[in-house]
Design brief:
alpha+beta; Dodecin; Dodecin-like; Flavin-binding protein dodecin
Length: 69
């Protein structure tokens, strides 16, 4: 029987372009640091405004990764 153990860590990522870009940027960075990244859950999305215009997109996400044996 094979047993897999995973861990979940919360990260935040920002982008000046879009939520999609913030997600991709965060996952790309997580993949460089964590081995075995298997998925993510987008927990929260937030925009920042300057003079009524959207100037930033932020996501908080829970990233899952499988632990090495």
């Amino acid at each position: 029987m094979t047993t897999t153990v995973a861990r979940v860590t919360e990260i935040s990522s920002t982008s000046s372009k879009s939520f999609d870009d913030a997600i991709k940027t965060g996952l790309t960075r997580a993949h460089k640091t964590l081995r075995g990244v298997s998925g993510a859950w987008i927990k929260e999305q937030k925009v920042t405004l300057t003079d009524g215009e959207i100037t930033g997109y932020r996501v908080n996400m829970l990233v899952s990764f499988v632990l090495d044996d």
